[in-house]
Amino acid sequence: MAKKRVAITMGDPAGVGPEIIVKAFAQEDIYKICNPLVIGDRSIIKEVIKVIGMDFDPDNIEILNLNEIQNPKKLIKGAPSQESGRASFSYIRKAVELYRLGIIDAIVTCPITKIALRMAGLPWLGHTDMLAELTETEDYAMAFYSESLKVILTTIHVPLKDVPHLIKKERVIKTIFFAKKACNMLQIENPRIAVCGLNPHAGEEGIMGREEIDEITPAIKEAKALEINVFGPYPADSVFWRAYNGEFDIVVAMYHDQALAPFKLIAFDKGVNFTVGLPFIRTSPDHGTAYDIAWQGKATPTSLIEAIKLATRMVIK
Q1: Taking Cα atoms as reference points, which of 8, 207, 15 lies closest to residue 111?
Q2: Could you tell me the pLDDT band of residue 317, with boundaries at 50, 70 and 90?
Q3: CA dihedral in degrees (265, 266, 270, 276; nearest 10)?
Q4: The CATH homologous superfamily of the domain defined by 1-137+278-317
Q5: Measuring CA to CA, which residue among 258, 244, 249, 282 is closest to residue 180?
Q6: Does the keyword Metal-binding apply (predicted)?
Q7: Assessment of whether the complete model's pTM goes beyond 0.85
Q8: Backbone CA torsion sign across 259, 263, 269, 271
């Protein structure tokens, strides 16, 4: 069977993306995992190898060279800029074009930052909403994978003060369906889905808030009626431990940090972010651009390697 063609976008060239790409290819035989194609700038790959002092031949990496960074020596490294934001978008847009042409099977995205995107005059908050718009996808969800814990988000990048207004039955039901789909993508059949409450102690019968009574529990009941194996709502202070110990296959969280704090505690270096609902498989390392350590030889490629492995595993043809 032919290896899957996986595009790896460079991410923000000023961040850790170029470094972890080089280190991933140096540390692991990526060509044994899949048929990889890095989308970015060859000059950036050559420059990062030189700057961090690696003994690695850039010709070992197949690169679709977009030549977005005209002079890599003048790139503001370790900080967002208009140039890096524009480049990071161009790499992603090209990957989507290649998928539509049937050239690639999946996309692995190295980190970008909303600050650089804004500096470049681009409207998106990150990969998830950008890819949704580029593919005209209306319904999607952000999920996170590790061997020991899988989570999915009901709300994504919104201020905490706005979260309660967004926790509606329809949104929770949709996320439960996406949780089932996420597990199916991972070849987990009839998954056991746990749903978090929003409030401490899952509202404690309305004493600490009514979202569980008015929105979350009705959503769970409706999903159960459709024969989905779903349970809750459970207090967030215990449900992740229960899932980690094997009681549940995935946890539906109400907001970003509710899920990501416990997830990153146990899978900081190996966690993988993936999007549910896109027309293609998309995974990403579960970390950001890490400007504070970028281009210093300090970044680890473990999460990127896991993202490449997961993307290859999830591609079904």
Answers
A1: 15
A2: low
A3: -90
A4: Isopropylmalate Dehydrogenase (3.40.718.10)
A5: 249
A6: yes
A7: yes
A8: negative
Give 26's pLDDT tier (boundaries 50, 70, 90).
very high
In angstroms, the CA 289 to CA 297 distance is 14
What DSSP character marks residue 287? S
Mean pLDDT of 190-218: 93
Averaged pLDDT, 8-33: 97
Average pLDDT, the chain: 95
Q: Is the pLDDT of residue 1 over 70?
A: no
Neighbours of 200 (CB within 10 A): 13
C-beta of residue 224 within 8 angstroms of C-beta of residue 212: no
Torsion of CA 210, 213, 216, 222, to 10 degrees: -160
Q: Is pLDDT of 3 > 90?
A: no
Q: Are the CB atoms for 35 and 7 separated by under 8 Å?
A: no
DSSP track, 16-67? THHHHHHHHHHHS-HHHH-EEEEEE-HHHHHHHHHHHT----GGGS-EEE--
Q: Quick one: what percent of the chain has pLDDT higher than 70?
A: 99
Homologous superfamily, domain 143-269 = Isopropylmalate Dehydrogenase (3.40.718.10)
The answer to whether 115 and 80 are in contact (CB under 8 A) is yes
The two domains 1-137+278-317 and 143-269 share their CATH topology (first three levels equal)? yes
